[in-house]
Amino acid sequence: MQNIVIKGGARLTGEVRVSGSKNAALPILASSLLASGRSVYRNVPALGDVRTMHKLLGELGAEVETKTEPKAGGITFVDTSKVENVEAPYDLVKTMRASVVVLGPLTARHGRARVSLPGGCAIGARPIDQHLKGLAAMGAKIELEHGYVTARARRLQGATIVFDMVTVTGTENLMMAAALAKGHTTLENSAREPEVEELARVLNKMGARIQGAGTSQITIEGVDELQPIEHTIIPDRIEAGTLLVAAAITRGNVLVRDCLPEHLDAVVAKLRAAGVEITPEDGGLRARAKGDLKSTDISTQPFPGFPTDMQAQFMVLMTRAKGQSLLTETIFENRFMHVPELQRMGADIQVEGRTVAVRGPVRLTGAEVMATDLRASASLVLAGLIADGTTKIRRVYHLDRGYDRLDKKLRALGADVRRTRGPM
Ligand code: EPU
C-alpha cells in the first residue's frame, strides 16, 4: 500500500499541464460500445478509474490497447468488433460506480445488459433510479435480481424523459441509449456539465443526431448505426481547479496550462472572491496569491454552479482565509469525510447538517491522515502542502483513482512530496 509524504511550506511556482478529463473519458470509453470496430481516444488520463473502465470493456469482449505519447498524453484503442458479453460484474462496479455508463450503450446496441447495482459509496447513497426510469420509458424491461439490474429491449424507442434531479451519468446513459433508439427522444432537466457536452460531441462524430447538449433540454433523433471514431478528450476541469487552489494556498505563482477557462468560471469567481489573482494566459490560467486570503461562502450546484468535486479542496483554502466561510454541500449527503482529518491537522471547522463553517486563518500542522475518497484525498494533499512539518496520507489509491500523477505534478512545481510504501 502506498502513502504520500509531504513536507509543507514550499511555495509552488512554474507551469503545469492539465491531463484529460476523467469524467469525460469514462462515458466516452463506454460509448465505443455503441459501434462495431476500432476507436482511438487521445489525451486519456492515466488514472485508476480509466484502468477500471479498460478492464470492464475487456471483460465485455472488447480489445483494449494503450500507449503513451509525450504530446498526446495517453492513447486508448478500443476494438468492439467481438463484444458479446453484456454483463458488468460486481467486482468492477463496486470499484467504480461510473461502470454503470455501459448500461445505456449495451441495451441500445445488444438489446440486453446486466449490470451490478453499485450500492452506496463513501460520499452518499447514489441510487440509479433515474437511469432506470429513462430506459423503462424507452421501452426497456427492467428487472432487479441478485444485486444486478437487467435491461432488455429488442429496440429502444424514443421518449420524453424528465429527470427528477440533475444527474450527470444519468443524462449520459440515456443520451447514449437514445442515440440508437428508434425515433425522437427529449431529455428534460438534463445535466449541463461540460462532460455531457463532450460526450454529445463524440456521439455526433459517430453519426448520432443530438442537439442541445450543454443546456437542460437535449433532443436526440435516433439512428440505426454508429461508427467508430478518433477523438481527443477535453482537459480535466477539476484537476485544473485543484492545481489553482494549490498555487493559491502556497502563495505561489503557477500557470495551469491546457485547461479550458470557460469550464472553470464558478471556480475562478470564488478564487477571485477569496483574493487570488487569476489571469487567462497562453492557453491556460495563472494563479497568484499575494495579499491575505478572504473568506467566501460556497454552495455546491450542478454546472454552471460551483462543482461538488471542488468542495473539499476549497475547504483547505478557507482554513487560510480571514474570517468565517460557509460551505454548503447540496449534491451529495455525505461528502464531508475530509473534515475530521482536517480537524486533526488543526483546522477550525464546525459541521451543521449540510453546511460547514470554516474559521481562519489557522496554521495547519502535519499529521498522519487517511484518505477516504477521491476529492477528500486531494484536500489532504493540499493541506499537507501548507501544514507545518510532515503530513503522511494513507490509502493513496483513492487519489490515484481520479488524478493523473498529482504528486509528480506538484513536485515539479517545487512541492516536497514523495511516495512511500507502508501499511494501509
Ligand atoms: N441521483 C439519484 N438518482 C439517480 C442519479 C443520481 O438520486 O438515478 C442523485 C445522486 O445520489 C446525487 C445527485 O443525484 O445526490 C447527483 O448525482 P449524479 O448522478 O449527477 O452523479 P454521478 O453522475 O454519479 C458524476 C461524477 C461525479 C460528480 C457528480 C456530480 C462521473 C463519472 N462522476 O457522478 O464525480 O461528483 O457527477 O457532479 O461523471 C468525482 O469525480 O470525484 C465524482 C464523484
Q: Describe it for me?
A:
The chain has 424 residues and is of the alpha/beta class. The protein contains 14 helices and 25 strands. The structure holds uridine-diphosphate-2(N-acetylglucosaminyl) butyric acid.
Name the features.
alpha/beta; globular; 424 residues; single chain; binds uridine-diphosphate-2(N-acetylglucosaminyl) butyric acid; 4-stranded mixed beta sheet
Mean of residue pLDDT?
A: 96
Q: Classify the helix fraction into a percent range.
A: 25-40%
Counting DSSP E segments of at least 2 residues, the number of strands comes to 25
What is the assembly state of the chains in this entry? single chain
Low-confidence stretches: none
Q: Which ligands are bound?
A: uridine-diphosphate-2(N-acetylglucosaminyl) butyric acid
Helices, by number, come to 14
What percentage of the residues does DSSP assign to strands (E)?
25-35%
Q: Which class do the helix and strand fractions yield?
A: alpha/beta
Shape: globular
Report, as a whole number of angstroms, the end-to-end distance. 6 Å
Radius of gyration: 21 Å
The major beta sheet can be summarized as: 5 strands, mixed
